[in-house]
Amino acid sequence: MTHQFPALSPEQKKALSDIAQRIVASGKGILAADESVGTMGNRLQRINVENTEENRRAFREILFSSDASINQSIGGVILFHETLYQKDSNGKPFPALIKEKGIVVGIKLDKGTAPLAGTNGETTIQGLDGLAERCAQYKKDGADFGKWRAVLKITSTTPSQLAIQENANTLARYASICQQNGLVPIVEPEILPDGDHDLQRCQYVTEKVLAAVYKALNDHHVYLEGTLLKPNMVMAGHSCPKKYTAQDVAIATVTTLLRTVPAAVPGICFLSGGQSEEEASVNLNAMNQLSLPKPWKLTFSYGRALQASALAAWVGKNENKKAAQEAFRKRAQINGLACRGQYVVAGKTDTAATQSLFTASYTY
Amino acid sequence: MTHQYPALTAEQKKELSDIALRIVAPGKGILAADESVGHMAKRLNQIGVENTEENRRLYRQILFSADSRVKKCIGGVIFFHETMYQKADDGTPFVQMIKDKGIVVGIKVDKGVVPLAGTDGETTTQGLDGLSERCAQYKKDGADFAKWRCVLKISDNTPSALAIMENANVLARYASICQQNGIVPIVEPEILPDGDHDLKRCQYVTEKVLAAVYKALSDHHVYLEGTLLKPNMVTPGHSCPTKYSPEEIAMATVTALRRTVPPAVPGVTFLSGGQSEEEASINLNAINTCPLMRPWALTFSYGRALQASALSAWRGQQDNATAATEEFVKRAEVNGLAALGKYEGSGDDSGAAGQSLYVANHAY
């Protein structure tokens, strides 16, 4: 307990810190394009496209062959294993296509949920077996960061102490192994938006979960400056009858983060959960407009919230490629503005309304 | 775990937060004048003065008669129980003298260390019994904040997991009880400077201790915006052969805090430990010019480092009272500047030379 056995050399730390800083450089966020085969199936089904490897490749090509200027809003892309080894129509590997735009390549590392016996339907995440070897290989093949998603849910009896502690622990093990292999770990403790709980309840649970996560990261000697956090925004459950504004979400979320996330963490990249594209942008923007001090970047790591329009424009037809790319570019640009609190939503007045709500933060 | 039973109302939170912010307002710090009777004996012995209640009263009067110059550099004064109920020569209660200067009154509430059986001479701190009633009374009698000191030490096999966990827990219980009674708790987990360990070792241990403290505060539902932290600076042990610059101390200290102290904590008020008056000021200044982002106020809560010159100027002679008060005011102003990063030292080195030593933070 009292002697340090340094996990990383200063050079390793610098490399990790530099990668993390590049991903969340000012105005940039992450495209989460790491949908598993099954999840992609859901997405493609909605636009009546068959879930084949070629179709998955074709859609990702549309995103990754966007004009290089996309790098002004996109700092990193998370890939699924299959995608890391696919190529564009000219035979160029996707990692190369992404990297030549100056964007960092990431890889989903977890292997999905596994039940926690004796709990009310709660889960932990598997994927630690052979993780070091997998990380080393992915690093060789072009990845510089990893992602691992733990899942918790709010009901009248969950999340339980065990679920919080077990998921925090696996996240910390994953993070430690990533760093040993030169990958920046994105730590994702998602609390699902399912349920009818209100905003305060989500805030309370998120504070407890994040406190446990950062204690675990500390216990496992993880270098915080070389990590990123991917949390849920603090919001009411989907079936909560009460409606909240973007400012409510912003204040509750940032208050929670101020109470739990050390300043050493360079960036917080929110997941979009069940939010629409516009909702996800407006909420992120509101957070960045708050005058509360924010020692970390507040940015995005969006899947659906960056791709929904692009998918709908594409509908599997090659002739729609440009339209799909334009839809993606637009969302990326909007989210880039939201990172700076500069997204002007048509018809809304902003800073004055936001400022006056700050005084209510003692209710959080 | 999933339902919140709010510990404090919005009004209680606001009151606590306001008090904390007043104490650590820019350029202000704390005078720790809470030496116990036994502790004062040592101080008075060093200047050949008898340890009587009257001498202790006369000495504190010297400090508390400081003129309005201290208003801009002293935000709070910590009292010992006896002193809370003493008066100046003209009958003005000390508490009132301090409050009339717009300074917040605090009270030491712990009851000293007790051994942890089965450890290598480690301790916990007692004082929880009847603490709530005592806090309520002190609040009535003029106190708005409190202080509780835990002690840990670095040796080959300490601090142990038990010592860290037990002291963190007792600090959290104390903090929770204080807040219930409208009192801002200063949380003090002091890691002693005794030993020959180097700077890195102290940093490592400090990070582990602070991570445990903030997990305990979260577990005990303590409202962080209504607390202050009083840690040791990260320094080498007293008998460490390696010498370090103020910039190295600053970098190690700020790095440790950035990794463990949530940004919601309004202020960090360092203890001076064994440092001389000038050393404590120079180090605090270096901390406030460190190039890393610092989301909390970084200021002082000094005992000896504010009083040493005043004590030796006084030597128990009434004729020396004014000169002694002047010594105190001088040190208070110097530390007020250091808290703003504007203290240029007693003339030995220049700020520019110091700046160039802030490199290679990845080595921390």
Automatic annotation (TrEMBL), chain A:
Top-level division of the source organism's lineage: Eukaryota
Keywords, ordered alphabetically: Glycolysis, Lyase, Schiff base
Principal EC category: lyase
Pathway it works in: Carbohydrate degradation; glycolysis; D-glyceraldehyde 3-phosphate and glycerone phosphate from D-glucose: step 4/4
Any Pfam family: Glycolytic
GO molecular function terms listed in the Swiss-Prot or TrEMBL record: fructose-bisphosphate aldolase activity
UniProt record similarity statement: Belongs to the class I fructose-bisphosphate aldolase family.
Lyase recorded as keyword: yes
Protein name as it appears in the record: Fructose-bisphosphate aldolase
Biological process according to GO: glycolytic process
EC number: 4.1.2.13
Annotated catalysed reactions: beta-D-fructose 1,6-bisphosphate = D-glyceraldehyde 3-phosphate + dihydroxyacetone phosphate
TrEMBL record, chain B:
Pathway(s) of this molecule: Carbohydrate degradation; glycolysis; D-glyceraldehyde 3-phosphate and glycerone phosphate from D-glucose: step 4/4
BP terms from Gene Ontology: glycolytic process
Catalyses which reaction(s): beta-D-fructose 1,6-bisphosphate = D-glyceraldehyde 3-phosphate + dihydroxyacetone phosphate
Matching Pfam families: Glycolytic
Keyword flag Lyase: yes
GO MF annotations, alphabetized: fructose-bisphosphate aldolase activity
Key words, A-Z: Glycolysis, Lyase, Schiff base
Keyword Cell inner membrane on entry: no
EC number(s) given by UniProt: 4.1.2.13
Gene3D superfamilies xrefs: Aldolase class I (3.20.20.70)
SUPFAM superfamilies named in the record: Aldolase (SSF51569)
Family assignment from sequence similarity: Belongs to the class I fructose-bisphosphate aldolase family.
Annotated protein name in UniProt: Fructose-bisphosphate aldolase
Native source species: Chroicocephalus maculipennis (Brown-hooded gull)
This protein's encoding gene: Aldoc
